[in-house]
């Protein structure tokens, strides 16, 4: 399995199954793109901004639903194995990616796993066990969550710094050293996390130190 980051902006994701698993995936996906959930029931769960369509397609009907929404990704999260089988076949025929929630192995090309993710701004960490132990993915995600606090702000700050330094007469080697020093500096992290100090000023101090050869 090769982890890749996929931009689904402007695409449709079609989820079959309105149980806790379909709801969890729909909530996550609907934050970024149009997400449609097809299920005979939705209980009282939170589906975020997903569109809910009440229906219980038979295996033979699944292709029509896939053709109707032309999704880039189809999620098979129903409690019916035959329906999930048909969803995988229909997604493959339509050239869409497919995520099967009721299987850990037996994957073909085009079949994707949904990892546990932690997001902080533009920074994401995704954890997969290759399907072996979803509970372990969840546990590791919970441990990493605190670690990522401030990472989104650090990415934003260092993106600005990189752009400024690129426009200056600094050499690429000096620039690399300067940006590396900023992302490693505890006082910059502290300023970003606590708001007590100005992170940009802390970063400028760190960069000056690298230029004096102090790091
Ligand atoms: C990470 C996460 C993302 C998400 O779904 O959002 C996710 N499962 C999560 C939780 C979780 N899932 C299960 C438990 C109960 C404990 C346990 O069994 O471990 C818990 C933990 C809990 O609920 O506490 C049961 C389970 N899961 C799968 C099966 C089928 C099977 O194994 O055959 C069964 C058995 C069903 C049964 O027995 O009937 C299958 C898959 N689940 C995956 C992802 C993919 C592999 C990810 C990887 O590579 O690690 C894969 C292959 C397919 C897919 O869905 O993409 C999310 C954590 C989100 C978070 O909190 O961060
Ligand atoms: N990936 C994971 O993390 C994970 C975790 C637990 C369970 N599972 C597996 O994923 C599947 C879904 O889990 P769950 O806990 O949400 O199950 P669930 O039984 O609570 O929900 C299944 C949903 O599918 C709907 N459904 C049934 N037939 C349908 C059809 N023809 N078309 C559309 N929807 C239909 C049901 O009405 C229900 O809303 C199960 O098969 C389970 O084995 C996966």
TrEMBL record:
Name assigned to this protein: precorrin-2 dehydrogenase
GO molecular function annotations of the record: ferrochelatase activity; precorrin-2 dehydrogenase activity
Protein origin, superkingdom: Archaea
Enzyme class: oxidoreductase
GO BP annotations listed: siroheme biosynthetic process
Location of region: Disordered: 193-215
Catalytic activity, reaction form: precorrin-2 + NAD(+) = sirohydrochlorin + NADH + 2 H(+)
Keyword DNA repair: no
PANTHER family according to UniProt: SIROHEME BIOSYNTHESIS PROTEIN MET8 (PTHR35330)
Ranges of biased composition (kind: Basic and acidic residues): 198-215
Source organism of the structure: Haloferax elongans ATCC BAA-1513
E.C. code: 1.3.1.76
Keywords for the protein's UniProt record, in alphabetical order: NAD, Oxidoreductase, Porphyrin biosynthesis
